[in-house]
Amino acid sequence: MKKIITTTKAPAPIGPYNQAVLNGNTLYTSGQIAFNPETNELVLDDIKTETKQVMENLKAVLEAAEMTFENVIKTSIFISDMNNFSLINEVYGSYFNEDTAPARETVEVANLPKFVNVEISMIASK
Predict the structure, then answer these.
(1) Which long-range contacts does 13-20 make (Cβ < 8 Å, 24+ apart)?
(2) Taking the chain, what is the end-to-end CA distance rounded to the nearest angstrom?
(3) What is the average per-residue pLDDT within 101-110?
(4) 3-state DSSP call for residue 5?
(5) Average per-residue pLDDT in the chain?
(6) Residue 106 confidence class, pLDDT cut points 50, 70, 90
(7) CB-based contact 67:59 (threshold 8 Å)
(8) Closest C-alpha to 58, from 34, 26, 93
């Protein structure tokens, strides 16, 4: 059965979607960008700070579903410039245990919402 997951600790959706959907024991998050949920402003100081905000938003969504990054089984990373990959990967990797890190893909795209530099979505399971 589908259950909508929401939290005020992550940015509110700005369209016809939800922060996450729990279906059985599997959680599907919407892509997160670097909106600070307290200020409703983008955090675009530098790519590492931007990626950290994205990961903190995802952490909040996972927590709302009573999960952690250890529950994540798959991630999708969309970036606007593959030259930022190593910096994004450095921040992203700090949230996971390398031995149990999820599967993932990283794709360079022409544009992202609000013209941000990185967007990440996740699939997690209890």
Answers:
(1) 19/61, 19/64, 20/61, 20/64, 20/65
(2) 15
(3) 97
(4) strand
(5) 97
(6) very high
(7) no
(8) 34
Predicted local confidence at residue 14, as pLDDT: 85
Does residue 1 have a pLDDT over 90?
no
The closest alpha carbon to 59, from 92, 107, 22, 26, belongs to: 92
Mean pLDDT on 57-72: 98
Residue 90 gets the label, from left (phi > 0), alpha (psi -120 to 50) or beta, of alpha
Domain annotation for the chain: domains and CATH numbers = 2-125 (3.30.1330.40)
Q: What is the distance between the alpha carbons of residues 54 and 122, in angstroms, rounded to a whole number?
A: 11
Q: How far is CA 22 from CA 8, 15, 93, 96, in A?
A: 17, 19, 24, 21
**At which residue do the structure tokens 């700005």 appear?**
14
Looking at residue 52, its amino acid is: K
Q: How far apart are CA 114 and CA 32, in angstroms?
A: 12
